[in-house]
Write a structure and sequence with these properties.
This protein is mostly helical. It folds into two domains: 380 residues, Serine Threonine Protein Phosphatase 5, Tetratricopeptide repeat (Alpha Horseshoe), CATH 1.25.40; 73 residues, no CATH class. It contains 20 helices and eight strands. The protein has a two-stranded antiparallel ribbon with strand order 1-5. Strands 2-3 form a two-stranded antiparallel ribbon. It has a two-stranded antiparallel ribbon with strand order 4-8. Helix 8 crosses helix 14. The longest helix is centred in the N-terminal third of the chain and has 26 residues. 50% of the residues are buried.
Length: 511
């Protein structure tokens, strides 16, 4: 199956017909040979469902809109929006938005991937599907724990299997330990001589690419530990580098979407669906635009497009963060455009805003930039920091053609940019982290996590009325309020361990 979702179908479990009578041959007569019981069910459909819902829920991509865009994109100052409900850069109180990812992920991602892993466990006909399911499970929980900290993990999704309806909250440290072990084991047990994957939206069943993804994800997890446990971080980073990582943009983990699908399904690109909806009041952030302009970055007019068609960087403006419709940036003030919102550069919807475009999950550019940091720290990952940095920055420019051919940046242009922005002694870690921030535009989950870990870029917080963080950028999102009544004992244990359930509480690896 191709990587994109065009006319895909998800297998349905059959139903059992109501018996019409009792005879001595009851079992034979009242068994429907066409029904799909457990022995006939094809669990590949669970992988398709988990992958698709990982990119956005069936409820207008509720959590992608609220978490990835409204909160994280503005906190990371990639985007700016003057709608009052875009609270990320205003640090205002909206518990429902903060809880959105937790609520949708457990219902629409965890459920499918836990079913997949449990159903295929020990089934001799599905060893590869089982191990790919384990990798997919790490992807799902990796994001959940990074957003919230301690979360239900070991007992999550086991209501049907073990009647656990109030799962315990595992510590983030234990979750990371288990995820790293799962990736190592799952990658090692993928075997091209065993079952073929059906309905794999990410790699069309290419097990070699799944191995590279597992090891590259292992590298990402190891880098998360650099503050909390540098020794363990180094051990796992070196292990990942030895096992085999992504080697080009062809290995990028992405899912392409279907623009013709209904808005209530996750088949459309959920990120850009909401970009399109919000475009009247949304622009690229001044912070991000100024950074690109300072480096003559060719991504400026790939990521962004001026409403009036202007392509002159000198007269291109990003919109400051921390404003709403009642308190908009002053038109015509020094350094600001005279024509209000129309004077600020907006996301370039024809390129990065296509409903059929990709959701990027992990890229070769990220991998090379992580290797650059690891090498700069003196870890044995092969190659020098500058070599990995150069490869990562170039890949971050050239992979944009995967959004759309119009986003292609020529090799010669990318090479010139790399040369002009080479690593400088004394600022290596900052340069690497800033390029990582630029490379994860629209994957705000990852931009937010790496900013917390590295401290770069050095973002200036905004000040807004009713700010609940005293002018500080949040470090996590808060748990759903419903958990305090539905799973009171376990959530209270988690809050006690972490110290508080607020926006400024740091998750374990951020301490």
């Amino acid at each position: 199956m191709k990587r994109f979702i065009n006319k895909f179908s998800i297998l349905l479990v059959g139903f059992v017909l109501l018996a019409q009578g009792c005879t001595k041959d009851f079992t034979e007569i009242n068994t429907d040979p066409t029904s799909a019981g457990a022995e006939a069910f094809n669990p590949n459909s669970l992988l398709t469902s988990a992958q698709l819902r990982y990119t956005g829920s069936t409820d207008f991509a509720f959590e992608t809109w609220r978490t990835n865009l409204i909160y994280l994109s503005t906190m990371m100052q990639h985007l700016s929006n003057v709608n009052g409900y875009w609270v990320g850069d205003k640090s205002r109180n909206n518990p429902g938005y903060e809880a959105s990812y937790f609520e949708r992920a457990y219902d629409e991602q965890v459920k499918y991937v836990v079913d997949l892993v449990r159903f295929t466990d020990g089934r001799v006909e599905y060893p590869n599907l089982h191990n790919v399911g384990r990798i997919m499970k790490v992807l799902i929980f990796h994001r959940l724990t990074d957003i919230y900290g301690d979360v239900p993990y070991s007992e999550a999704g086991l209501g049907f299997y073990e009647q656990i309806f109030t799962p315990k909250y595992d510590t983030q440290e234990s979750i990371y330990d288990n995820m790293l072990s799962e990736l190592e084991s799952a990658a090692a047990n993928l075997n091209p001589n065993e079952d073929a994957l059906i309905g794999d939206l990410m790699y069309a069943g290419d097990l070699d690419k799944w191995k590279k993804l597992a090891n590259s994800l292992m590298l990402r997890l190891s880098m998360r530990l650099s503050k909390a446990n540098a020794t363990k971080a180094q051990q796992w980073a070196e292990k990942a580098a030895t096992a085999g990582l992504m080697t080009s943009n062809d290995d990028n983990a992405l899912i392409l979407h279907d623009a013709s699908s209904d808005r209530l399904t996750p088949c459309r690109n959920s990120i850009v669906m909401n970009l399109s909806y919000e475009i009247p009041n949304m622009r690229l952030s001044q912070t991000f635009v100024d950074w690109m302009k300072s480096k003559s970055d060719p991504r400026l007019f790939v990521y962004g497009k001026n409403p009036d068609g202007n392509t002159n960087p000198a007269t291109t403006f990003g919109m400051p963060n921390g404003y709403d419709l009642a308190n908009k940036p002053v038109s015509g003030a020094p350094g600001y455009p005279a024509n209000g919102l129309d004077g600020y550069i907006a996301p370039n919807l024809p390129i990065v805003g296509k409903l059929s475009g990709p959701t990027f999950i992990l890229t070769f550019a990220e991998v090379e930039l992580m290797l650059a940091e690891a090498a700069q720290r003196g870890w044995n990952v092969g190659g020098s920091a500058s070599d990995h940095y150069n490869k990562g920055v170039k890949a971050a420019l050239t992979y944009l053609s995967q959004y759309d051919p119009a986003g292609a940046i020529a090799d010669a242009v990318a090479d010139a940019y790399v040369s002009a922005n080479a690593l400088q002694a004394g600022t290596e870690l900052q340069q690497i982290a800033e390029q990582y921030w630029a490379a994860t535009f629209l994957n705000e989950y990852e931009a937010f996590a790496n900013w917390r870990r590295t401290g770069f870029p050095q973002l200036t917080p905004t000040s807004f009325p009713d700010d609940i963080t005293n002018g500080q950028i949040p470090r996590r999102l808060r748990y759903p309020t419903a958990e305090y009544s539905n799973n009171e004992v376990h959530i209270q244990e988690a809050v006690a361990r972490q110290g508080a359930d607020d926006l400024l509480t740091r998750v374990w690896w951020d301490n």
